[in-house]
Specification:
The chain is of the alpha+beta class. Helix 1 packs across helix 2, helix 1 packs across helix 4 and helix 2 packs antiparallel against helix 4.
Length: about 210
């Protein structure tokens, strides 16, 4: 995937990045099957900022994390969407550490597969993500080792959730992002400078990289 504008954060200037695509097929207890999908960019130095690792090594770690999670989920047998995640959370981090991954990198793979599983679950049942969570269709429960959640009624808590009526869009400003017209690089007619972005989209919240 090639970026419209170079994006610099930390020591990395990103102009393109490979993408990972996941397709997950699930079967419900009644035998109904469906597929879900998810995708994410493989961005170097986003999860592991160790300068000793090259960009290619960072990307290879993300691929390895995904492969570990795929193998673990396939070998686990029947489980709920949440059950797959919680049962493999600790083992995934341990397996990743054995391959030199930090915890954040190790959890990249499960996170991407989990998104595909939730997509498949919602498609199979014909519900929105909000409806699925509110009804706790993923089977979310407090893990036994989470002492502060002992006795917590997860179903009751989730059933009381309601979607927000509005959400603030945050604009991330990279270290190379054009701020004034003199800084413009592309001139493709789309908003490019910070002022143009604010004028077009009305952003009021920003993150400076």
């Amino acid at each position: 995937m090639r970026l419209r504008l170079p994006f610099r954060f930390g020591v990395v200037t990103l102009t393109s990045a490979p993408q990972a695509f996941v397709r997950a097929r699930i079967a419900l207890e009644d035998g109904k099957e469906d597929e879900g999908a998810a995708a994410e960019m493989l961005v170097p130095k986003w999860f592991d900022k160790d300068p000793a690792l090259s960009n290619e090594q960072n990307i290879d770690q993300l691929r390895a994390s995904l492969a570990l999670a795929r193998d673990a989920y396939l070998a686990a047998g029947d489980n709920t969407a949440f059950g797959h995640w919680i049962d493999n959370y600790g083992p995934q981090i341990a397996l990743g550490a054995a391959q030199g991954m930090n915890s954040l990198t190790a959890c990249f793979g499960p996170a991407l597969i989990d998104r595909a599983l939730l997509d498949a679950l919602c498609r199979a049942l014909g519900v929105s993500f909000y409806e699925a969570v509110r009804s706790n269709l993923p089977g979310i429960s407090a893990p036994g080792w989470q002492a502060d959640l002992a006795g917590f009624d997860m179903d009751e808590f989730l059933s009381q959730l309601s979607p927000a009526t509005q959400i603030a869009a945050r604009h991330t400003v990279g270290l190379l992002d054009p701020v004034t017209p003199a800084d413009k690089k592309v001139n493709d007619g789309l908003p490019e400078t910070l002022g143009e972005v604010v004028a077009r989209y009305g952003h009021r919240w920003f993150k400076l990289k």
